[in-house]
Specification:
Blueprint (H helix, E strand, L loop, with lengths): L9 H8 L13 H22 L13 E5 L7 H6 L3 E6 L2 H13 L7 E5 L10 E7 L8 H11 E12 L3 H13 L16 H10 L2 E3 L3 E6 L3 E5 L5 E8 L2
Parallel strand pairs: 1-2, 1-4, 2-3, 4-5
Antiparallel strand pairs: 5-9, 6-9, 7-8, 7-9
Length: about 250
Amino acid sequence: MDNATATIDPKEAAHFGALAAEWWDPKGSSAMLHKLNPVRLAFIREAIDAHFGIDSRALRPLAGKRALDVGCGAGLLCEPLARLGAQVTGVDAAPENIAAARAHADGMGLSAGTITYHEGELAALGLFGFDLVCSLEVIEHVTDKAAFLKTLADALAPDGLMILSCPNRTPQSRLLLVEVAERLGHVPRGTHDWKQFVTPAELRDLASGAGLVLNEPKGITWSPLSGLHLSDDLSLNYIATAGKVR
């Protein structure tokens, strides 16, 4: 693949690869992701049901469907998607993360046929036709955001569902997600570069350039009483669905 379409930042891959051994430890360096995952999964489940017309009481709403998680880390989202019935493919830039993901899936009894993991650039892997494509907290870590969105769009089936999440570039996110969170050890130092955060308007433009329509995002915020939760407040983080232009 030529450099014009490369999206992996080697320094970012090395940073997250170094955390691979603790990825599944809810009290380790990925503790914040463990707290965030149920909030994201609640949004994803509702989006799946609405998009595919599935009964919210169904236990395996993704049965017979193919799901792709790009920037999958050690599989925190891949495994729940598999339990929802999907045949899952996970892609990550760090080989250490992929090794940890495979080992954890094996330990949980999830066969290689249920979840398949790949390392490297998505565009070089020839993956297409997915019913569901997810990339959560990833776009702020890539080198070419427009090229990255295009590769995600290329992997999505014409009537498929895409789900994206990203920290918003606001004064609030700079204070809480970077300065406070990293200083207090809630996330490892060097995890976030605030300048790389993407606003909802910017993500909408990037999606449009990739032939996608971004729907109205939902905020992910925090309060002392509710902890992390979905809200209309987009100032810290947000999650949204998208689909191909028809």
